[in-house]
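Researcher: I'd like a candidate sequence for this fold, 649 residues long. If you have to choose between options at a position, lean toward the conservative one.
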């Protein structure tokens, strides 16, 4: 009988013995549960080979942190396995067809061993496998079709190996693959050609390599990619078309690279991006609109940016859906400009710990909407300017905030301080003093204005009265009387001044006002302006005794004016609108003119006014003065009055 036959007999005997008394043969340091069909052999079991005395019906076998060096034929006894974990052992290689009996196996974890090579025969028989973990081994390359026998594989972890070359057809057959880890390898370029076979891939981790730059269409073929991790990829430059085609990307990690500026234009194409991690880069400022186009961004993490010093206003201007903002461990960040976060209505979680922030303004953001605030480990200067924050800490369940200065408040909790501790008492006194001064100045100004108005009340009243009279005169009389008629109609003609009217015909010339007392007489031919506001008809040398008065004829109390005629209509225009009015026939109106008289007695030097003062005639409102003029005694009105210069009349 051959030795191989004896080995088979011995294994068969052991198998039946294990089936008969599984619990009795559970290795030392292992946990065997026949009810759940789970066996766990952790570090204390010190196994160097796979045990063959376990219950052959077990479904979950975990032999982690032991010293197993190879997978031998004993694995064939456990055909019911769904889960096998042989991580953190000393496996150097996996013989071909080692898992030929594991038709039901769904998860295989061989991570953190010393496996350096494998072929497409290595995984033969694993038709149901969905998760394969080979992380932390010594793999150097991926050959063509190495995973082609795993049609149902959904997650493949090849991270933390030594892979420097990937065959373009290495992932052939992985039609169901959704998660791929290639991070922490020795790739010097993105393996774009191999991605064309991964049309279902949703999550890709390729950070911790040595890419230095991302070329255009670096991820061509990955149209369904939702998560892309490029953390620690050594990126210095990202071309404008690097993310082209990634329209469904939701999560992007660009942390731990060497970017000098935020790649705003490159990121703007990722309109569906919701989570962005951008810390541990070399940019010094977050400028306005740095994240333009990222309208769906909900979480932004900028942690460990050692050169970051300032965040400008409107840096997050278009990120209205931002819910969580993490700005932590940026040792030079001491300036967050006022209003930088005020336009974020959905912000609920703000982490500002371990920065160089000394103070914050209340207008920084809408604090009443915030649910979580972390401000620990900042060199805060606790003065009156942080009184508002102290009140917010009492109102909301925010993290503890300690003072770094001034010296007498060092290490004290801001929440426990009073306004006097923050030096707000003196500030309140100063504010009250300023308010009092302002009030006193306003009251003094108002008092001065009132006194001035009272002192000059008469002038103000006269000015206001003149303004009202002029406005009424222009609107009611000037527009009413400014019409010119022919000689035949015996109507008034309006010349340069609205206050002077002429009856047509007659010789030029009329009385003129002489010089005022103490003044000089006008030059020969010069005009003396006569502001007037009434009209009186004066006919002939005895004009003051035979007047035709318009609209204001008052008989003298002594009745000395028997020939006084009145135009009863009260309006110059209405009184003279009919050319057949008997009162002003052609005989009476020829060589006559109308002038207006002012209330201030400016006509006193005229004969009519003197006669009126002597008690012969009542003061008229409208008078008709002969165009031929008159010269009462003791007056020096001999200069002509032309029709073209009626201001002189």
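Model: Candidate sequence:
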């Amino acid at each position: 009988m051959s030795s191989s036959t004896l080995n088979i007999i011995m294994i068969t005997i052991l198998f039946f013995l294990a089936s008969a008394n599984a619990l009795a043969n559970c290795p030392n340091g292992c946990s065997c549960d026949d009810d759940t069909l789970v066996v766990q052999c952790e570090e204390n079991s010190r196994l160097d080979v796979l045990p063959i005395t376990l219950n052959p019906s077990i479904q979950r076998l975990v032999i982690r942190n032991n010293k197993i060096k190879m997978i031998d034929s004993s694995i064939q006894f456990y055909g019911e396995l769904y889960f096998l974990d042989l991580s953190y052992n000393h496996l150097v290689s996996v013989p071909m067809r080692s898992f030929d009996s594991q038709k039901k196996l769904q998860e295989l974890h061989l991570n953190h061993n010393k496996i350096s090579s494998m072929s497409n025969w290595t995984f033969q028989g694993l038709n149901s496998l969905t998760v394969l973990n080979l992380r932390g081994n010594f793999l150097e390359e991926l050959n063509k079709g190495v995973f082609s026998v795993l049609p149902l594989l959904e997650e493949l972890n090849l991270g933390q190996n030594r892979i420097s070359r990937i065959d373009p057809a290495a992932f052939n057959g992985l039609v169901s693959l959704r998660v791929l880890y290639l991070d922490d390898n020795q790739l010097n370029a993105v393996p774009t050609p191999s991605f064309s076979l991964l049309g279902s891939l949703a999550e890709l981790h390729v950070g911790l390599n040595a890419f230095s730059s991302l070329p255009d269409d670096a991820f061509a073929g990955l149209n369904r990619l939702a998560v892309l991790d490029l953390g620690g990829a050594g990126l210095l430059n990202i071309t404008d078309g690097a993310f082209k085609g990634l329209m469904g990307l939701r999560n992007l990690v660009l942390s731990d690279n060497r970017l000098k500026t935020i790649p705003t234009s490159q990121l703007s194409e990722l309109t569906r991006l919701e989570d962005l991690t951008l810390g541990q880069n070399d940019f010094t400022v977050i400028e306005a609109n740095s994240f333009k186009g990222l309208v769906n961004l909900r979480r932004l993490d900028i942690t460990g940016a050692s050169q970051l010093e300032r965040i400008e206003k409107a840096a997050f201007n278009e990120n209205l859906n931002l819910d969580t903002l993490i700005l932590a461990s940026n040792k030079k960040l001491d300036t967050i400009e006022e209003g930088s976060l005020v336009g974020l209505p959905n912000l609920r979680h703000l982490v500002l710990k371990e920065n160089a922030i000394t103070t914050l303004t209340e207008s920084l953001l809408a604090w009443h909407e915030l649910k979580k605030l972390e401000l620990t480990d900042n060199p805060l200067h606790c003065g009156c300017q942080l009184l508002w924050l102290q009140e917010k800490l009492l109102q909301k369940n925010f993290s503890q905030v300690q003072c770094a200065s001034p010296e007498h408040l060092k290490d004290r909790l801001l929440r426990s301080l009073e306004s006097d501790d923050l030096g707000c008492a003196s500030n309140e006194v100063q504010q009250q003093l300023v308010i009092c001064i302002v009030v006193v100045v306003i009251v003094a100004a108002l008092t001065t204005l009132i006194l001035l108005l009272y002192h000059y009340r008469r002038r103000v009243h006269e000015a206001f009265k003149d303004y009202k009279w002029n406005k009424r005169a222009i609107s009611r009389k000037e527009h009413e009387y400014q019409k010119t008629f022919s000689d035949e109609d015996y109507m008034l003609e309006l010349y340069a001044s609205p206050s002077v009217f002429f009856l047509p015909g007659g010789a030029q010339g009329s009385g003129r006002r002489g010089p005022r007392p103490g003044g000089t007489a006008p030059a020969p031919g010069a005009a003396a302006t006569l502001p007037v506001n009434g009209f009186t008809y004066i006919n002939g040398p005895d004009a003051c005794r035979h007047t035709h008065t318009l609209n204001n004829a008052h008989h003298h109390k002594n009745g000395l004016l028997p020939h006084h005629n009145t135009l009863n209509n009260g309006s110059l225009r209405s009184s003279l609108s009919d050319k057949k009015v008997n009162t002003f026939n052609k005989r009476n109106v020829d060589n006559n003119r109308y002038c207006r008289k002012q209330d201030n007695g400016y006509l006193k030097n005229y004969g009519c006014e003197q006669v009126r003062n002597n008690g012969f005639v009542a003061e008229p409102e409208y008078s008709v003065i002969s165009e031929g003029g008159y010269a009462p005694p003791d007056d020096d009105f001999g200069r002509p009055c032309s029709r073209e210069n009626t201001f002189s009349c």
